[in-house]
Amino acid sequence: MVSSVSPALARRIALGAQGFGSGGVRPAPGLRQLTGLVGRLGLLQIDSVNVFERSHYMPAFSRLGPYPKADLDRLTYGKRMIEYWAHEASFIPVDTLPLLRWRMNDFRARSLASDDSWANANPQMITWLLAELAEKGPLAASAVEHESNRGTGSWWGWSDVKIGLETLFRWGDVVAAGRTRFERIYALPEQVLAPEVRDRVVERADAVRELVSISARAHGIGTAADIADYFRLKGVDALPAIRDLESSGELLPVTVAGWNRPAWLHRDARQPRRIEATAVLSPFDPMVWQRDRAERLFDFHYRIEIYTPQPKRVYGYYVLPVLIDDRIVGRVDLKNDRQAGVLRVKAAWAEPDPPTDAAERLAVVLRQTAAWQNLTDVVVAPRGTFAEPLAAALAAS
Q1: Sign of the C-alpha dihedral, residues 219, 224, 229, 231?
Q2: Strand partners, 254
Q3: Residue 165 half-sphere exposure, CB side, CA atoms within 13 Å?
Q4: Average pLDDT, the chain
Q5: What pLDDT, on a 0 to 100 scale, did the predictor assign at position 155?
């Protein structure tokens, strides 16, 4: 029985659980490798920002290297995965969707609890949208012909049609049937889901326990707050599930020096002696999306500055942490300049005491990144403590 885990081992366990491995020569990743990784992670967070790359494409690149994005599209826009509110908007395996039915019911109850809510004020719109999908099949909001399908000043400028479809999506009365140019396509469940998925009923406590199990396996090691956050569970729901999984032997209670709170180790978690990896991480990567956990694991203070006014930004607009082996050693502000055909490093910053070969290793990854994005060059702006050595490494590569 493991009762105490060092911070360094906890960090390696977490990285190993997330698919960061031993490095070395790897086969070119294809559909099989992507399927395995998605199964390991349990979800891919979606985000609309496209200054560098859509967030859901990045975790596979960070772990597997350059891969055909069309292969991931076959999973995320096929029959194996589907969208829902998991950790924010996310792609999840389609079999996970019934585990979130209780969340759909909670969304419905909250929508209808207030007499002046949009749902209570617009029952005719809801009924009409369901009838439109039944008659015409899957549709994007922009393809719905209705006089009120015009943006307003509320809900990010959404029209009543968009609000209605998103409300039904949260309730589970409609589901996502893919995306076109990143616009969600809406459909009735029977138009997309197999009967065994559509008709599966899971009691809330059982569903939460399954979600906690998925999360704990993806973490390898974590606190109750870590494990709950993966699927945005409340502690009052997650903690009893953690205790159940502890009683069954799936989760092992451990202590980690410096964490100052209880932690659990998944019984199947690898305990690597070392991690060999060089990667840039999406701001929405599970390794860093919970900022408190990133500080505990890596002593790395990270905040995305997209929503910070430009004069107040410290590191840049779309800043990606740089992982080398089991340390986060820096951060780069990346922009995919599609018109010029170059990957722009608008700023590069080093954490204290980076490895001596950090610039050379990052240069290799950035060259791979540019090629993966069908770009011809990498250009480094002279901003940040890591910019000069990175530019020199790229010039020498």
Answers
A1: positive
A2: 263
A3: 26
A4: 94
A5: 44
* Residue 375 contacts residue 336 (beta carbons within 8 Å): yes
Q: Tell me how many degrees the CA angle 336-87-296 measures, rounded to the nearest 5.
A: 85
CB count in 10 Å sphere of residue 2: 14
Provide the token pair at 114: 């207030």
Chain segment 121-160, per-residue pLDDT in tens: 999 999 999 999 999 999 999 999 765 555 554 445 588 9
For β-strands 342-350 and 377-380, DSSP reports them as parallel
For the record, the structure tokens of 38 come out as 């998605």
Pairwise CA distance, residues 62 & 65, whole Å: 6
Amino acid identity of residue 122, one-letter, is: N
Handedness of CA 290, 295, 298, 303 (dihedral sign): positive
Enter the pTM of the model.
Answer: 0.94
Measured over all CA atoms, what is the biggest interatomic distance in the chain, rounded to whole angstroms?
A: 66
* Cα gap 183→176, rounded to integer Å: 10
Q: Which two tokens stand for residue 278?
A: 């060089």
Q: Are 294 and 310 in contact (CB under 8 A)?
A: no
pLDDT tens per residue across span 18-64: 999 865 556 789 999 999 999 999 999 999 899 999 999 999 999 99
pLDDT at 78: 78
Q: Which tokens hold the place of 319?
A: 């800043």
d(C-alpha 259, C-alpha 278), whole Å: 26
Q: Which of 10, 60, 12 is nearest to 276 (CA)?
A: 12
* CA-to-CA dists, residue 194 to 54, 75, 104, 303, 397, angstroms: 28, 16, 18, 40, 50
For residue 1, pLDDT over 80 is answered with no
